[in-house]
Design a protein that fits this description.
eight-stranded parallel β-sheet; binds pyridoxal-5'-phosphate; globular; 8 helices; 220 residues
């Protein structure tokens, strides 16, 4: 196959570097999280050998055994999926960063973890994320819980939207959040199809799956 994992990774890294230059930003400001959900541990190992260090997973029942199997890797694990309150504590045992904090019930004592508050940019409450108007009250609770380190905001651009507009909106929400949480300036946004727009609007954490891994096997 012409299009190997290494080729796809290199292609995405080049496109990221181009966007970073276009945005007049520093490459050091961007963390690329490679989303490996539904893929076997062997693919994570290959990516690690290619120099990837940050990996994203979205389901506890899949992530827990996979991450345990890969305990020998020099890796940072990011939880990006909807989080059930019952599973939140277990997830904190094995991830470094939770991108999907979106409810008061997830704010609890536990192992120290970096968190993003996820913002729902749609009108559909079943989508993950808090409504923009609820960001600040949740942020106050997070900051009062010593084991949680608030990094910033996370969002997914809605389907059939203009991602650049959506990411601009998240950047503006972040600017107002920073008035009460000056350190919470990180922005987790940008996926396979829209990472250039996200970089242009200030993304610090990209979550990129298929553009690097190829199509995902169906979940089991
Ligand atoms: C699956 C997933 C991604 C990666 O999506 P791709 O389109 O494969 O890059 C990013 N963020 C979240 C929240 C996801 O669930």
């Amino acid at each position: 196959m012409v299009d190997s994992l290494a080729d796809r990774l290199a292609g995405v890294q080049t496109a990221i570097a181009d966007a970073v230059r276009e945005a007049n930003r520093s490459p050091d400001d961007i963390t690329t999280v490679v989303v490996t959900k539904f893929h076997p541990a062997s693919l994570v190992r290959e990516l690690s050998q290619l120099g990837v260090r940050d990996f994203g997973e979205s389901r506890h029942q899949e992530a827990a055994p996979k991450i345990a199997e890969l305990a020998d890797l020099d890796a940072r694990w990011h939880f990006i999926g909807q989080l059930q309150s019952k599973k939140a504590r277990a997830v904190r045992e094995y991830v470094d960063v939770v991108h999907s904090l979106d409810r008061e019930s997830l704010v609890a004592e536990g192992p120290p973890v970096d968190v993003f508050i996820q913002v729902n940019l749609t009108e559909d409450p079943d989508r993950g994320g808090v409504s923009p108007s609820a960001i600040e009250s949740l942020a106050e609770l997070v900051m009062a819980e010593g084991s949680l380190n608030l990094l910033g905001l996370m969002a997914v651009a809605p389907l059939a939207s203009q991602p650049r507009r959506e990411f601009e909106r998240v950047r503006l929400l972040s600017e107002s959040l920073q008035r009460i949480a000056p350190a919470a300036s990180a922005l987790s946004m940008g996926m396979s199809g829209d990472f250039r727009d996200a970089i242009l609007e200030g993304a610090t954490h990209l979550r990129i799956g298929t553009a690097i891994t190829g199509n995902r096997p169906s979940p089991n």
